[in-house]
Amino acid sequence: MTDAIRETAQSNAQDVVELAKRHLVQPWPTAGEVGAEARPLIRGGEGIYITDGAGKRLIDGPAGMWCVNAGHRREELASVMYEQAMLLSYNTPWYTMSEPSAVLAKRIADYAPGDLNHVFFTTGGSSAVESALRFMQFYNNVRGRPEKKLILSRGGAYHGSTYLSASLNGRPRDRDWMDGADDLVVKLSSPNPFRRPEGMSLAIFSNMLVAEFEETVSRIGADKIGAFIGEPIQASGGVIVPPDDYLPRIRKICRDNDILFIADEVVTAFGRLGHVFSSGEEFGLDPDIITFAKGVTSGYFPLGGMVVSERLLAELRRSNHPTAMYAHGLTYTSHPVGCAVALANLDLLEGGILAHAQAIAPYFQEQLRTLEELPLVGEVRGTGLMACVECVADRESKNPLELDTSVGMRIDAHCHELGLLVRPLINMCVMSPPLVITRDQIDDMVAILREGISRTMDDLR
Ligand code: PLP
Q1: How far is the CA of 266 from the centre of ligand 1 (A)?
Q2: Model confidence at 400, in pLDDT bands (50, 70, 90)?
Q3: Where are the coiled-coil regions (predicted)?
Q4: What whole-number distance in Å separates Cα of residue 83 and Cα of residue 103?
Q5: Is the pLDDT of residue 268 over 80?
Q6: Average pLDDT of the chain?
């Protein structure tokens, strides 16, 4: 441990929180709290646990932000980062390249479905999405179709915090006070079965979503639409699992209309659903582009990227345009430390974590669903190791709770006291623990969540 880290680790937790309140801008602050907000201090982590400023051990329910897939404090990952930094800490991707980036690209390409075989590395998910969309724009410019640029996205979507990626976001609270490239984006409905019209079957709901998609394409014209982007399972939107046939049908319409199908797998890749990529193995899809981030390094280093289809690249090469340039790259594209830790992380996933995630997921889902007995819980849904507990004012009507009930925040506060960190999303709690979680730990997690919800129900009486 360096002196600087040791010093911070020994300082009074309240002093650190005060420092943050005075000098740190945290993500997603309200105007009233921007630059002045106290958030719980987290000081350490091991396996599925984190330790807060008071030394209290908590289960890391959301695995950071759906990302600490291999768990905290993995020697195998930390040591590789140290070794790579000592060997080559940085390489400029403009003129030269590093070995970890080429080896990682090959390993990722081997897992990608269809003909996706080239990887462009970024610094996270937003920059991965941004890269994919700018690639679509470039691709259509080179092909002489500068009008074909609109992007279809959906309600409930979350694709990032950079300008273009954020313009795709579908949750009102992410958009209400922020500007975006609205003239480039067309929004469709979220494929959220829980909120489908009363009495409608899943099959009819799926038909309705597909009809909306077809109608949009014919109204606007396929010659104006460059891409559809979708999370196979909407994550931050509340773990929305769409009807089974919905994504394959959308994929087909995109192919028939020469609209690029971009699967945003920032959350669903690298083990969350038990596979390296879920598009092919879970949903039978062959997207044109897949974006990824988070679990690729288990959150140990900010890395993301996009995997692109050979067909698209071959078309560009064939055009052999003398001046056209995909003028897009980041200082930290293909960062050697990030790529090295991603390789070590893939070793861990292949070495047992993927198999464990597949084996434990049914128990995780089954146990969480027992919470549906509680009157405040409208639905527990999810698949793999991602789930959402949605609370409602009334189970029959599924009426949502008033925003100011802050039910997610209340559940989180109670659970924190009891030893579990929850990711509150207004009236929902998202659970996506490190993939190494065991049965006993799932039991602990669900027991705490049950008690946290019960205490919240008492608060609301
Ligand atoms: N795409 C999806 C599906 C996400 O869930 C997120 C972040 O949660 C992003 C993109 C943006 O990733 P990042 O926060 O790494 O920029």
Answers
A1: 6
A2: confident
A3: none
A4: 17
A5: yes
A6: 95
Q: What are phi and psi of 169, to 5 degrees?
A: -65, 145
Check pocket membership of 129 for ligand 1, CB cut-off 6 A.
yes
31 residue type, one letter = A
pLDDT digits (tens, 9 = 90+) for 167-223: 999 998 898 999 999 999 999 999 999 999 999 999 999 999 999 999 999 999 999
**Ligand 1 touching residue 157 (CB < 6 A):** no
Please provide the size of the chain in residues. Answer: 461
The answer to whether residue 5 scores a pLDDT higher than 70 is no
| Sheet containing 42-46, strands listed edge to edge, beginning at the edge strand earlier in sequence | 42-46, 49-52, 57-60, 420-421
Structure tokens at 271: 């083990």
Residues 6 or more apart in contact with residue 276 via CB below 8 angstroms: 108, 111, 269, 270, 346, 349, 354
| pLDDT tens string 86-102 | 999 999 999 999 999 99
Cβ within 8 Å of residue 126, ≥6 positions away = 159, 160, 161, 162, 165, 166, 304
Q: Which atom of ligand 1 lies at the shortest distance from residue 129's CA?
A: 10
Find the range with the poorest average confidence among 172-181, 265-274, 375-384: 172-181
Q: How many helices (H) and strands (E) does the chain have?
A: 16, 15
Check: complex ipTM more than 0.90: yes
Which residue has the least CA distance to atom 10 on ligand 1? 159
How far is the CA of 7 from the CAs of 39, 298, 441, in angstroms?
A: 20, 27, 32
What is the whole-number distance in angstroms between the Cα of residue 49 and the centre of ligand 1? 23
Sheet holding 225-230, edge to edge: 116-122, 304-309, 289-292, 260-264, 225-230, 150-154, 185-188
Q: Could you tell which of 123, 158, 277, 297 is best to mutate to test the pocket of ligand 1, judged by most ligand atoms within 8 Å of the CB?
A: 158
Distance 158 CA to ligand 1 centre (A): 7
Ligand 1 within 6 A of 365 CB?
A: no
